[in-house]
Amino acid sequence: MTSHQAPSATIDSELPALKNAVSVALEYAKQLGSSAAEVAISKQQGLSVSTRNKEVETVEFNKDGALGITVYRDGRKGNSSTSDLSPEAIRQAVKAADDIAKYTSEDPFSGLADKALMAQDIRDLQLYHPQILTAEELAEIAIRSEDACLQSDNRIKSSDGATANAHTSAKVYGNSHGFLNGYCSSRYSLSCVAIGEESDGNMQRDYDYTVARKYQDLLSPEAVGKQAAHKTLSRLDARKIATAKMPVLFAPEIATGLMGHLIGAISGSSLYRKSSFLLDSINTQIFPDWFSIEEQPHLLGALASANYDSEGVATQSRKIIDNGTLATYLLTSYSARKLGLTNTGHAGGIYNWTLSHSNQTFDELINAMGTGLIVTEVMGQGVNGVTGDYSRGAAGFYVENGQVLYPVEEITIAGNLKDMFMGIQGVGKDRDLRSSIRTGGILLSEMKIAGN
Predict the structure, then answer these.
(1) If you count Cβ atoms within 10 Å of the first and of the last residue's Cβ in the chain, which end, N or C, has fewer?
(2) What pLDDT shows up at residue 5?
(3) Where is average pLDDT lowest: 194-203, 223-232, 415-424?
(4) 378, 257 Cβ separation under 8 angstroms
(5) Which of 154-163, 290-299, 335-344 bottoms out in mean pLDDT, i.e. has the lowest?
(6) Helix (H) or strand (E) holding 353
(7) Could you tell me whether strands 353-355 and 437-438 are parallel, antiparallel, or unpaired per DSSP bridges?
(8) 234 secondary structure, DSSP code
């Protein structure tokens, strides 16, 4: 490894050229007589180093990007893309999109988002913190995390690897409304996987990770390695439990997935296809009345902050769930038109959902649960978005009288998402901030557990 494997320049230096490429594409689309056009371009560069048992395994440097253009002609739409950003290649991509638009079927709901919705107030959300890192530096923190993991307990027999990443990107979006904006972002991460073994040969694995916009905000490599080891050791000697109904406490990283099913159910594409169990549920209570979810797109330095969505529509703070009641769907321009509703600026995803809490820590939720199951892992895809039926393989810990007794594996947890949402008894105040859904553990009153 040599230091020249690190990016030689920060990606913000390329932003003017990317904006110019978008302008060129839009101008050419206008010359071809299109009724509207939109162009998105992204460029990423980064370095990733993986180690295994304290030896460097892979070093990957990537630098790539692409321009995508959508041309509209009287309700018809054509798409094209190119990774060659020369003026001639851009013109060819625009012409290809325009030619496609001439032959596609007319769709009265397609087209740009309304001009009035375009973002005007572009703030510095502090998403970009460039730090030039060499492969040696990333390898060092990966190895340090593995070393801390391996040194923590003699039952940690080996590491299944550690990976350190440093990535930056530049994104530009423009359309024929006159909107044109671009920004840069950075993301750094470190993960470590531990393998533990009991004297009887039973083996388990688990991992931990840290992620941040700013390199200095990552947890220490030693903390990541020790936590990976701790989580693995806690799973040793796992067993099944008897089939029963009991309270279930989703660990924070699993609780985010539970809320992910809500996202799918209230997204416009599910609604206009009538493939959601929450059809016609606006202003309907679907959670306990103390429970709320607030979307906060403009949190400084957060992992899911943005001034506008992928159609240029301004993002805004809003209640998703307001005192248990569904306050909004998640709509793009297309789904809003299909449903006869208002665009909510959710093309491209959600922005920093923060769940209200019940003023309890995770340990206090365990105590409040009494006897039940902590779920730390789910497997399989057994969730029906139409009916809300939920059935997934799971692993975790059996709790009795507020005390964790032993790890559990090879079980299935089942219920219906409507009942599960209404049955939320508590949400931890010690939130996990490593994703777009910021929540602590979530305690449910009851689920079916299929075991022995």
Answers:
(1) C
(2) 46
(3) 194-203
(4) yes
(5) 154-163
(6) strand 353-355
(7) parallel
(8) H
Q: Outline where DSSP puts E strands in 136-252.
A: 156-175, 180-197, 203-212, 244-250
Domain 3-235 has CATH 3.40.50.880: no
Q: Are 113 and 312 in contact (CB under 8 A)?
A: yes
Distances (CA, A) of 126 to 45, 184, 187, 302, 351: 19, 9, 12, 8, 15
Residue appearing with tokens 């665009």: 343
Helices (H) and strands (E) in the chain, counts: 9, 17
373 Ramachandran zone, left/alpha/beta (phi>0; psi -120 to 50): beta
Say how far apart CA 188 and CA 129 lie, in whole Å: 10
166 φ, ψ (degrees, to nearest 5) = -140, 110
pLDDT digits (tens, 9 = 90+) for 346-401: 999 999 999 999 999 999 999 999 999 999 999 988 899 999 999 999 999 999 99
CA gyration radius, the chain: 24
Cα-Cα-Cα-Cα dihedral sign, residues 293, 295, 300, 305: positive
- Give the other-Cβ count within 10 Å of 368's Cβ: 16
Looking at residue 8, its pLDDT comes to 52
Q: Is it the case that residue 293 has pLDDT exceeding 90?
A: yes
Model pTM above 0.70: yes
**Structure token digits, residue 25:** 């594409």
Joined together, the tokens standing for residue 28 give 């050419």
- 36-46 burial code (b ≥16 CB/10 A, e <16): bbbbbbbbbbb
Residues spanned by CATH 3.30.2290.10 within the chain? 3-235
Query: Tokens 């572009």 sit at which residue?
Result: 122
Residue with tokens 């050229």: 17
**Is pLDDT larger for residue 452 or for residue 270?**
270
Q: What is the pLDDT of residues 98-118, one digit of tens each?
A: 999 999 999 999 999 999 999
Please give the single-letter amino acid code of residue 434: R
* Reduced DSSP (H G I as helix, E B as strand, rest coil) percent helix, strand, coil of the chain, to 5: 25, 40, 35
User: Coil, strand or helix: which one is 309?
Assistant: coil
Q: Among 113, 40, 48, which residue's Cα sits nearest to residue 79? A: 40
Instruction: Find the Cα–Cα–Cα–Cα dihedral 405, 410, 414, 420, rounded to 10°.
Output: 40
Residue 280 burial by CB count (10 A; 0-12/13-18/19+): exposed, middle or buried?
A: exposed
